[in-house]
Amino acid sequence: MSKLTEWAYPLAESLLAEPLPRRWQHCLGVAERARTIAPVLGEDADLLEAAAVLHDIGYAPDLAKTGFHPLDGARYLRNVADADERVVNLVAHHSCAWMEAEARGLHDELVGEFPRESAHLNDALCYCGMNTTPDGTPTNPIDRVNEIAGRYGPDSLIGTFIRRAEPEILASTSRVLERVAAAKRQPM
């Protein structure tokens, strides 16, 4: 483990394991997916894994201020945890957060406070989250989107957002899979 991941895991566990054990299992699963694509990330592999295990900390009861977990988690990481800026930005923008921010009237706050990281890292974190069930086991993005829409209801803010985001989620996943396939074709 790198220093970044050594720092990230206990922080996420301290915020999620007791009050939200299922969410903690999801974050562990997302981090596991991050490790599976590490070869295509090079020096950013540890960065992605740290963001993956931290991506949902904004759901922690003590952190939930706006009710929009990417923003709440990123603000905590920036203001309290003094986290690496790139981890903060990945958490802020994970899984097409800008679309949900628009629906919540928080888009200007999100993009004004947190710049987006490179597209390949945003794609990678989206891939990891959308290939992990709420219990932390592997899934696929179509089943994951359907699960989210079903859990929140199709007419809810989250249900509407996730259906709107579905094409971008699928495109992000496809781009990551293309990079993984290309890396496997490279000679040793």
TrEMBL record:
User: What SUPFAM superfamilies has UniProt attached to this entry?
Assistant: HD-domain/PDEase-like
Q: Which InterPro entries match?
A: HD/PDEase_dom, HD_domain, HDIG_dom
Question: Sorted alphabetically, which Gene3D superfamilies does this protein's record hold?
Answer: Hypothetical protein af1432 (1.10.3210.10)
Taking every annotated instance into account, which residue ranges of this chain make up the domain HD? 23-128
| A Pfam family of this chain | HD
The record's NCBIfam families line, in alphabetical order, gives: HDIG
Q: What is this protein called?
A: Phosphohydrolase
